[in-house]
Amino acid sequence: MPETSLLIHPEELDMTWLDQLTRLNVRALGLHPVGGRLANETLAAMLARFETREYRALLDEAARRGIEVTCEMHALRYLLPEATLKAHPDWQRVDASGHRTCDWNFCPSCAEALDAISESAARLYVRLPNHPRRAALWLDDSPDAFCHCDRCAALSPSDQQMIVLNALLRGIRTVRPDAQLAYLAYFETLPAPTRRDLRDGLYLQFAPYKRDLTRPIDDPASEANRRETAHLSALLDFFGREEATALDYWFDNSLLSDYKKPPKRLIPHPDVVRADMAFYSGLGFERIQSFACYLGADYRALYGLPDLDAFRIAE
Which end of the chain is less enclosed by CB atoms within 10 A, N or C? Predict the structure, then answer.
């Protein structure tokens, strides 16, 4: 059976969460700062938490229990801040209307920008606990966020992401030579890339954001799920099954609460979770993850512990 992992917001981690992971026999935890336009601030806040004695104690307790902690985050707004892009207009992406803009991502055809982000990634990576072998430094959290300049026009969003990931990987491998980075298949990057020359050191992380969570992911009657899985076979052929990760949304109460607090009560669909896990396992995924955000102390104060039993793997 594949390894399982849950992703939560860093500020939600506490002993109750560690107890939940232990009970569920989940041996990996992803810390996922909030994405969007404030992703740079939430990532910086996570790094500040790592410097506190209280948070280090939680990370040490996770390690004592055999729970691997990773960091999985939209990192570009932190690695290449808006002020830096404003100072270098030629680094900015060109949007679909033909204008330079520093709203999301940057121009991956700009060698200077790639060098800058490589160096920035190395500085970030040294601040992550234990310098994890697998890292997820995702591009900005928005659809239609890629570059349309003359040099990038022939590059699909998937191949643009491959170029950026290779620059990030070059940086973090100055710290840990065997490090690997996730290729996030999400929004416009669901179609498989074509740049096989850039594949080394990358693994697939399939995240069907627009799926129907009330029906199994392979339900042929679900148009949304057919659309999200249409490129899955090609993605697995391109990246292979080694380290392949399915990142789903079964317990993502931030999504189900429309990203607003106070959180709504989580209504899980255990039959869907079990069917999806069997589907991913049958395809050869080595890791199955779910977001589980907005299920921290504030959620428990309103509703008690969330029902995550469908994710439990028997020992």
Answer: C
CA angle, residues 160, 104, 200, in degrees to nearest 5: 30
Range of 261's domain? 3-311
Element (H, E) at 288: strand 287-291
Which residues make Cβ contacts (< 8 Å) with residue 85, sequence separation at least 6? 91, 92, 102, 106
CATH of the domain at 123: 3.20.20.80
Which residues does 140 contact at the CB level (< 8 Å), separation at least 6? 35, 39, 74, 76, 77, 104, 105
* pLDDT tens-digit series, residues 240-251: 999 999 999 999
The mean of the pLDDT values for the chain is 96
pTM given for the model: 0.96
Rounded average pLDDT over 33-45: 94
Q: At CB < 8 A and 24+ separation, what contacts does 235-241 make?
A: 235/185, 235/190, 235/192, 235/204, 235/206, 236/204, 236/283, 236/284, 237/192, 238/192, 238/193, 238/196, 238/199, 238/204, 239/183, 239/199, 239/202, 239/203, 239/204, 240/204, 241/283, 241/284, 241/285, 241/286
Maximum Cα–Cα distance across the chain:
55
The number of distinct structural domains making up the chain is 1
**Residues 271-283: pLDDT tens digits?**
999 999 999 999 9
